[in-house]
Amino acid sequence: MSTDNNSPTRPGTSYVPALGTLMVDTGHGNRPGEFRGLSGPYWSLRPVSGGPEWEAVPGQVRPPTPAERLTAENARVNTRSRRGPAW
Predict the structure, then answer these.
(1) Total-model pTM
(2) Which end of the chain is more exposed for a tag (fewer CB within 10 A), N or C?
(3) Contacts of 40 (CB under 8 A, 6+ apart)
(4) Gyration radius of the chain over CA positions
């Protein structure tokens, strides 16, 4: 475990990621999502390919592994390519 006081892996810290930061919600089956803001004591996350936000317990959210980041970015690119240009 990290000794950094702002580490997102330490429950109870005041760490809040920047908007759009990719995070993984371990409380919802390691579901990746972009941080969208605070909702009371919870963090709002949004699926990387779009869709409705959900609330996550901050102590159950962690940064993605390199493999999880690659998978999420690949899903985002695939979704954009299927939608076509946004004119």
Answers:
(1) 0.78
(2) C
(3) none
(4) 14
Q: How far apart are CA 57 and CA 49, in angstroms?
A: 21
* CA–CA dist 85, 47 (Å, integer): 20
Q: Whats the size of the chain, residue-wise? A: 87
Provide the strand spans (E) within 1-87: 22-25, 31-39, 42-46, 54-56, 61-62
**Tens digit of pLDDT for each residue in 43-75?**
999 999 889 999 999 999 999 999 999 999 999
CA distances for 21 relative to 7, 44, 51, 85, angstroms: 14, 11, 16, 24
Q: What distance in Å separates the CA atoms of residue 50 and residue 46, rounded to the nearest whole number?
A: 7
